[in-house]
């Protein structure tokens, strides 16, 4: 079994050089980094392993979890989480990329009105320039492939309007922008809230951090040991890494960003 996260009020941080790194970056003690994130951006994480896994992704992309550039997206069925990045976070990691050289947007002249939504261009196109490429990356997203209609309750009444209904044009622009960044710079393993919900809807598998450790040639190595650089390992007759979980869609956040 994965180690359960301690009670919020008495959260005890695992010993990890990664937590120390985050603490130094934001001038916060490692224990307070862990405890604060457990109560805020990563409050949906139920295990220490999940919190550490989210920190690994945040560190990889230079995202600030304290301002919710990255946060945990819950899977209510299995208790797993997905690393979700808001539009501000996507802009940060793209614009800090050493080859970033600007973007442009193009809009369709044809306007459409989706069910329960507002009038919107049929498509939005983003043009992303890289300093090391002679040609830009051009990504076009169509409204009919991105739009998320209102769901219905069991009594047949519709849910309250979401961001696709209230900010249709902005949401389509965000979809084009994020897909353009992903294609141009090779960002993987992170999702926007709307994308995460759709991703889970089609029964895709979300990779969970290994529990209680990761399998190596020398046995099972704990995540905390791997992150801190120690070689703490358990005998090879310990249970092997658990399999991946299949998840269901959580409720998406508004996803409006900037």
Overview of this protein structure:
This protein is of the alpha+beta class and 258 residues long. It folds into two domains: 1-83 and 206-258, no CATH class; 87-191, no CATH class. The chain has helices at residues 17-26, 30-39, 48-61, 87-95, 143-146, 163-166, 168-185, 193-201, 223-228, and strands spanning 70-74, 81-85, 100-107, 111-112, 120-121, 123-130, 137-142, 205-206, 213-216, 219-222, 233-234, 245-246. The protein has a three-stranded antiparallel β-sheet with strand order 3-6-7. Strands 9-10-11 form a three-stranded antiparallel β-sheet. Helix 1 (17-26) packs across helix 2 (30-39). The chain is flat, with a radius of gyration of 20 Å.
Q: What value does the Rg take, in angstroms?
A: 20 Å
Q: What overall geometry do the principal axes of the alpha carbons give?
A: flat
List low-confidence stretches: 202-236, 241-253
Described by its quaternary structure, the protein is: single chain
What is the number of E strands? 12
Return the structural class: alpha+beta
Strand order of the largest sheet: 3-6-7
Estimate the mean pLDDT confidence.
Answer: 77
